[in-house]
Amino acid sequence: MKTLVLGDVPGGTITTTHVVENYPGFTSVTGKELADAIQEHAQVYDIEIKQEKVLKIEKNECFFVSGRNTYKGKTIIIATGTEYKRLDIKGADLPGVHYCALCDGPLYTGRTVAVVGGSDSAAKEALLLSEFAQKVFLIYRGNELHPEPVNLNRVRTNEKIEVITNTNILEIQGEKRVQKLILDNPYNGSTQFSVDGLFVAIGLVPLSGIAKDIGVNTNERHEIIIDKNSKTNVEGVFAAGDVTNTDFKQAIIGAAQGVTAAYQAYEYAKKKKVYPCG
After folding, report:
1. How far, in Å, CA of 124 to CA of 147, rounded?
2. pLDDT one-digit tens code per residue, 18-66
């Protein structure tokens, strides 16, 4: 099969992950190193990889994928992943609000920062920031954090990290950049909380918009619905990774779904004898 891979950000969201410890074959690796290794392996074969954002997909006898250019294909695999969920409060657009500790953490060496969120991603962000910042506050609206046990233990034993639960951030304030947070629950007797920066880790949003354009079904969370063979409801369209309705968002699961989707795309093209299309 002649294969074209299109993507806006090489490697996707995992490249912003500091440490990956649950991908077989790698005891511990950064997300960027893992993504680079996978791409290097892929480039051994006769495929074309282009850094180009896909803006639209159309389906006729073929699939027409449009970005800066338009490409024609017999089948398509959508593996667009997710993007960070934005904090929707006043002041969230101030400089000093970040969504990637790996990218921006070094800016806060010796300073005080806060992370908002209670997931494994939030715990990892706090742990990474503790390598740079003097103090890291992990603020969560629930009763207790829910990261993977190993990361929960690391947070609890890290002297630089302090967890604040049952607390929401109502507003972010600052003259030209983040200076303080307004909380709904007093901390040390005050709802005003001074920080130098805020890192947001409140979840991810599936990038499924282009799939909906061609009638692909999604669930209430806007994840692409697939079956055990990575098939969608649209003939010739397959999906893999975090953009799908898989229960666990892990790199190894996305990779496995990618293999399944590629195999099924080949079987579809072979059985339908769509040579050539269009």
Report:
1. 9
2. 888 889 999 999 999 999 999 999 999 999 999 999 999 998 888 999 9
pLDDT digits (tens, 9 = 90+) for 60-91: 888 999 989 999 999 999 999 999 999 999 99
Q: Is 100 a catalytic residue?
A: yes
pLDDT digits (tens, 9 = 90+) for 103-156: 899 999 999 999 999 999 999 999 999 999 999 999 999 999 999 999 999 999
* Spatial distance between the Cα atoms of 62 and 147, rounded to a whole number of angstroms: 43
In CATH, 3-84+204-272 is 3.50.50.60: yes
**Per the residue annotation, which of 36, 46, 104, 196 is the catalytic one?**
104
> Which one of the listed residues 36, 62, 88, 103 is annotated catalytic?
103
CATH 3.50.50.60 fits 97-200, yes or no: yes
Fold agreement (3-84+204-272, 97-200): yes
To the query of whether residue 104 is one of the catalytic residues in this protein, the response is yes
Exactly one of 46, 62, 100, 184 is catalytic; name it: 100
Is the separation of the CB atoms in 135 and 163 below 8 Å? no
| Number of residues assigned to the chain | 278
- Locate the domains of the chain by residue range: 3-84+204-272, 97-200
Query: Is 277 a residue of the active site?
Result: no
Which stretch of DSSP H or E encloses residue 272?
helix 251-272
Strand partners for 224: 218, 244
